[in-house]
Amino acid sequence: VTDRARNAVVTGANSGIGLETARGLLRAGFHVVLLCRSAARAEAARADLAGSVEGASLDVVRCDLGLQADVRRAAAEIGDRLDRLDVLVNNAGLTIRAREVTAEGHDVMLAVNHLGPFLLTNLLLPLLEASAPARVVNLASDAHKVGRLRLDDLEAARGYGLLGFPRYGETKLMNILFTRELARRLAGTGVTANAVHPGGVRTNLGAPPRLVGAAVGLFLKSPEVGARTSLHVATDPALATVSGHYFARSALADGKLSAAARDDAAARQLWERSAALVGLDA
Ligand SMILES: NC(=O)c1ccc[n+]([C@@H]2O[C@H](COP(=O)([O-])OP(=O)(O)OC[C@H]3O[C@@H](n4cnc5c(N)ncnc54)[C@H](OP(=O)(O)O)[C@@H]3O)[C@@H](O)[C@H]2O)c1
Q1: What angle do CA 249, 142, 206 make, to 5 degrees?
Q2: Is 246 a catalytic residue?
């Protein structure tokens, strides 16, 4: 039971950690907007959630985060539908094995894992700030440790590395640096920004072949458990003013950050270059 209507947007809310994050927020009394790229998968998630949470208040906004034009349209749609935004969970992400390019000409992992959430968040910032206290939660990963930020090659023209894993790690490193710079810029606004490592979770990430997925899955958490840290950071009253940090197992985990993930000068440069790539003023 909440004292006022609170709204949340969860990206990639039709699968894995995002679906369970949406369910947890619904149970906590939020009105939840599911931001999904597939209308059919979004409707399946809506039916699943509505069937499992009594009185669930839900909406769907369709958006391919890999396409900036679509992100701009979706952000405008959210602004039209919501009079306030209390929580934005940038959860959607993907990993692919070899480099691909979007219809707009950007590297796919850069576009979906970093530029999309970067642009969406920036476009929603006025609404978040007007709704303060509000929170931005970014799904990063301990995989950031294998990532090396190549500021001179953000589009990964020089490739993804072995099976794309170093590149995935690099985009997760970007998520952490984005979070730090965002928190710095939001200081004093009442809007917080934190990054989350959900743990190893049994989801569709990386589209594992069925047998491999089943075998590896034995060692992974359920999506419900995997969503706990996101929910903790999004809702715990004790974290109302905590910003710019990294969380794992529902606890502060800054000690797990690589040196590259603490580089605030790199975070500023990444922000400036990202702003240029999405056509925003830095
Ligand atoms: N699973 C883990 O062990 C683990 C560990 C560390 C961090 N993470 C992070 O957790 C987050 C959630 O991943 P997950 O494990 O729950 O994987 P998942 O089951 O594959 O879910 C990913 C979600 O992102 C969506 N998505 C992918 N590309 C998109 C695009 N272009 N536009 C909009 N939505 C898009 C997917 O939509 P579709 O269903 O349409 O593809 C799906 O809803 C990711 O950021 C991931 O990096 C996961």
Answers
A1: 105
A2: no
Q: Tokens in use for 164?
A: 């794309």
Write the pLDDT tens digit of every residue in 233-264.
Answer: 999 999 999 999 999 999 999 999 999 999 99
171, burial (CB in 10 Å: exposed 0-12, middle 13-18, buried 19+)? buried
pLDDT at 2: 43
Could you tell me if 57 and 169 are in contact, meaning their C-beta atoms sit under 8 angstroms apart?
A: no
Pick from 91, 165, 212, 221 the residue to mutate for probing ligand 1's pocket: most ligand atoms within 8 Å of its CB. 91
Strands 134-139 and 191-197: parallel
Distance CA 92, CA 90 (A): 6
Tell whether the model's pLDDT for residue 1 goes beyond 60.
Answer: no
179 alpha carbon, distance to own chain's centre: 10
pTM attached to this predicted model: 0.97
> What's the pLDDT tens digit per position in 87-137?
999 999 999 999 999 999 999 999 999 999 999 999 999 999 999 999 999
Which residue in 30, 168, 246, 247 is the catalytic one? 168
Query: Residues enclosing ligand 1, CB less than 6 A?
Result: 12, 14-18, 36-38, 41, 63-66, 91-94, 112, 139, 141, 197-198, 200-201, 203-205
CA–CA–CA angle 8, 9, 10 (5° rounding): 115
**Mutation probe of ligand 1 site: the residue of 9, 19, 37 with most atoms within 8 A of C-beta:** 37
- Of the candidates 282, 273, 281, the one whose C-alpha atom is nearest the C-alpha of residue 114 is 273
Give residue 10 CA to ligand 1 midpoint distance, Å.
11
